[in-house]
Amino acid sequence: MHYALYRKYRPRTFQDVYGQEHITAALKNQVAAGKVGHAYLFTGTRGTGKTTCAKIFARAVNCLSPKNGEPCGECAICRGLEEGSILDVVEIDAASNNGVDDIRDLRDEAVYTPTDCRYKVYIVDEVHMLSQSAFNALLKIMEEPPSHVIFILATTEIQKVPATILSRCQRYDFCRIPPKVIEQRLADVAQKENIPLTPPASALIARLADGALRDALSILDTCTSATEGEVDEALVRRMAGVTDKSYLFDLSDAVCAQSAEKAVLLVSQLRERAIDMRRLCQELIGHYRNFLLAGAGALDDFGMEPELLQRYQQQAAQVPMGQAVRAMRLLGDCLDRMGRGTDPRIELELCLFSLARLGEVPAAAVSEKSAVGQKAAAAAPGAAQAQPAPGRPLPETGAGQPAWNPPPPSPQAELSESAPCEGCSFWPAVIQQAQKADPMLYGFLKDSKAYLQGRRVLIDGGELFLTFMRTNKNSAQRMRALISQVTGETYSLGPYDRKKAQNQPDKAQQTFRMLQENGVPVEFD
Asked: Can you give the three-state secondary structure of 300-351, one letter per residue?
């Protein structure tokens, strides 16, 4: 009978356990010092050695001649536990024995002393699957256990274990095994099994395993059954179902280029390749997360190919952090709507359409703005020299505040600093539109006020809003698009200066002053 590689090469001692040295050292010290607790809790992701360490620990505490906390593997107890002839170590699968009656039977049996061993050890795997009544039944015997009983609880979802159980256990967290350590273990197994495993294939298996050594050995086992020759990277990709993820970059490039048509076409092509839309949405969320972390300099290479890591780092500048956050939120909402029974393809297409179109200025507005700007430049002497060169950033105004727009297309009287400010009547509608189209931008605008100064909208949003406008390159463009959607007209933007506005005369004062300067007598009734 063929044994799977992960069963055949399951560690027999703590020394054989890979990647969990901090836990194996603590358990060995307890056995060597004779200070063994009554309850342990092993938590961590799958394939990291929880059940394996529990079995080794059960043999070590009962071994007749332990060596530095390790089971000898030669005495009658060690051999009997390995062969299954000694029944004092009981392994329980809580996923299928999760009722209160199962735990009551365990509690009734635990009071009896072990037959052959020093300790009766109960290994409860996937303990989080127990019902609330079963946990209550287990709690009593864990609170006052017999001196000959040791409980070892293992779980992958520690958050589901009640705090009353956690407080009575020694907790050990099993971390994900690093890819380099998995590669080393794969090389050892391949050498013992005479498997021609290439280093690139070993590295790819280690990345696909995602920190689980058991998964890595299972992938190697699958690949060896598919060929009698060399196990190379191409074979691993084919057997593990690994596909090229370049379509994720194609979709994000289409969004950055504001090409909704291309994004929708790519979704249609991927659907024809039988790619699940929900899975694609999840992959896109992770894709934009990688852009966000790469932009922040926090993207690590755990489980990621070096070429892919380099590509994210190179293209992070094309996807600003604010845009990545917005995309993740919209895609998350899309994934939530997919779970409500609506067509996943339509939901994803709508989401990508919103991402691509959001912030796009209508072509008519752009042409009108360009034409009026050219007329103003021709009429004003020296205006051409005042315009910044194409491709250069606009200069800053005031105390480090950004010049959000070039001068708006309006008469000179309206653009002057002395032009009066009025309350912006359509600003609440703009805020309401932002709530639907861009939740992140809405968070900065919801408590803001706006004022009109001719054809310019001055926004009073506080220092946090100004910081957002400085750091987010596309924010002004998106806001102008929202205003255009509400009003059908094009406005420029700027920050509202409260101190300056307080010293500015109102319309009546301006009219009174103008009449006085022109020698017109003004009388009051």
From this structure: CCCCCCHHHHHHHHHHHHHCCHHHHHHHHHHHHHHHHHHCCCCCHHHHHHHH
